[in-house]
Amino acid sequence: MDKGYSILMSVYKKEQPGHLKESIQSILSQTLKTDNFVLVCDGKLTKELEQIIKEFQENNPGIFSILRLERNRGLGIALQEGLPYCKHELVARMDSDDIAKPCRCEKQIEIFCTKQVDIVSGTIEEFNKVPGDRKIYKILPENQEEIIRYARTRNPFNHPAVMFRKTAVEAVNGYQPFYLLEDYYLWVRMLGNGARAYNIQENLLYMRVGEGMYNRRGGLKYFKSLCRLYHYMRKIHFCTIFDVIKIISGYFFMCILPGRVRERIYIRKLRRSKNRD
């Protein structure tokens, strides 16, 4: 199997230059190198961000493919626009403020070489300012059957640490706009189309959370987006009406809570606070 892979990242004007620099550098420092880094600029960027991108291009000739959208279109559209520029069958997602562990991509390629899978993700560690300052991990089910059961009620993959087969994503028409749930919507369609998946039970990536992440997972707009997704899942028989009622009632309670209270519940109920390194 060809061990080449592409990186797919989107960045927009509100990203911190230092965060972008750390994120890109973590990919260029992988034990298994990429030769195709697709960076989608989702609308006009600041001069500081442009300077970071320029420096990486100059220091790594031939690796970067920069795609510029005239205006901010949102993550789903940005990733869908960038996907055709990924020249390898295997594509690793990366967010513009996270930090990949050095062996992340090599470990994922090993799974693709040994298992018949279309999606590979893994454990992530949340952090605020520096990796290790929270020691909070998001650990997901490992194998196909567990992943499908889990996907009926919650997102089954850590999107910033996903590597997938490009053809399997294209088979379901790729990323689509879906407020804050673009990836979950994609995974449901892929799993429903017969895609096979695996979650590595090791920490692959440090995910920057800050205060904004848990605030975004609340409010009426987010709740409506969740309702629309689970209605779709019921419509295609991915879950039952009883699943939907149980899920939506629970999410409604979560969405109306203050951000700090919601964060504590996520950490206590949905994350694990133990050393996984």
Brief digest:
The protein is built from 11 helices and 9 strands. By secondary structure, the protein is of the alpha/beta class.
Structure description:
There is one protein chain. This protein has 277 residues and is of the alpha/beta class. The protein is built from 11 helices and 9 strands. β6 and β7 form a beta hairpin. α1 runs parallel beside α2. The radius of gyration is 18 Å and the shape is globular. The mean pLDDT is 91.
Distance between the termini: 29 Å
What share of residues is helical?
40-55%
Strand content: 15-25%
Estimated structural class: alpha/beta
Topology:
Layout: E1 6-11, H1 17-28, E2 36-42, H2 47-59, E3 64-69, H3 75-82, E4 90-93, E5 99-100, H4 104-114, E6 119-127, E7 136-138, H5 144-151, E8 163-165, H6 166-170, H7 182-192, E9 197-208, H8 212-216, H9 220-235, H10 241-256, H11 259-270
Parallel strand pairs: 1-2, 1-4, 2-3, 6-9
Antiparallel strand pairs: 4-8, 5-9, 6-7, 6-8
Characteristics:
277 residues, alpha/beta, 9-stranded mixed sheet, 11 helices
